Amino acid sequence: MVIVNIAEAKANLSKLVNMAYHGEKVVIAKNNLPLVDLVIHQPEGKRKLGLLAGKLEIPEDILKEDTEINEMFYGEDDKHPQ
After folding, report:
1. Which pTM value belongs to this model?
2. If one looks up domain 2-38 in CATH, what number appears?
3. Would you say the C-alpha torsion 18, 21, 24, 25 has a positive or negative sign?
């Protein structure tokens, strides 16, 4: 394991990246207190579509206007667009 302070990491970034790429544990510190580990990028993989399929119910009247909400937006004079 290699622990380097930020200033040294800035000066030797290419070398440290290469070390991490080849399996060496590299820790970057500030005032000798470990802050972050330099690790190889791990792709997250593809998104999975349909995770909520069958777990969600959409009401039949989802597009129905609500009088109370319309009054909050447009007032009680009922002069709102239809």
Report:
1. 0.54
2. 3.40.1620.10
3. positive
